[in-house]
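Re: the request from the purification team.
They wanted to know what the chain is likely to look like in 3D before they choose a buffer screen. I agreed to run a prediction and write the result into the notebook, where they can find it.
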Amino acid sequence: MNQPGQPWQQPMHPPAGDPFQEWAAQRGWRMARDAPGDVLGQLPGPPFHDYEHKAIPLLLAGLHEGMPALVMQIANSYKYTATTGSYYSTTTDRQVTTSKSGTATSMTSVAVLELPSPVPELLVERRHEKPGGFLSLLGFNRSKGSARGEQVATVQIGDPSRSTNAFTYQISGASPQYVQAVVTPERLHWLYRSFSNFAGLKVPSTPLFRLSGRKVMFWTSRQLFRPDTVDELLGWAHHVTSWIPPAAFQDPAAAEADRQHVPLTQLRLPFN
């Protein structure tokens, strides 16, 4: 296992047959399968704690464009109840709805980059409730606030009356000015369109991201099927850094956001 504060070392004898291990060895990265859950305990906030029951089938660590980086696949287990049908009950003289319950698993693939200097908190996530009013300045919708009490803007993707894939982005950040400098409706629409072919699946996939201190986190609910999808996810995370305005690095809120995080090279990771 790497010692806190020391750079990650290249594996000496990568096992053959695992394409992700081969990818890691070619780039001087480290890889672990079925990493322990306490790795996520060192990474605060979204997307690492969106579900109560989690596992890490794949964990990769190394350098990307000179920055410390992590890529992980998180398997989220959750309980569900689904309606299966209905029938008329002569006993109760009314219609009865039937349902079934079970446990399902969803995947979250995350890339984390560590910037040289911190920036304030900003979160772009998927909103499930109805959007609020209209912010005419940039075409944002604005609600009364998020669960964290932060300023929130929303951007509608697609027409709900025409597409079942339509949804709303919810954006929260350290200040409205910071949110509007980083995330515009045009950028989010472009991001969604450009990301729709992630992993070549031609299936709509929602890209989400977060800026927090020195951390840039970019994730989606898609599995990393092949090693080239790791490169793709890292590339998108790196592209988001180009949206950060220079003034963000001078904002006092940047240092505050960074206090919650441990440098990536100081994380306790399960590498031999």
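For the purification team: The longest helix spans residues 227-241.
Please add any questions underneath this entry.
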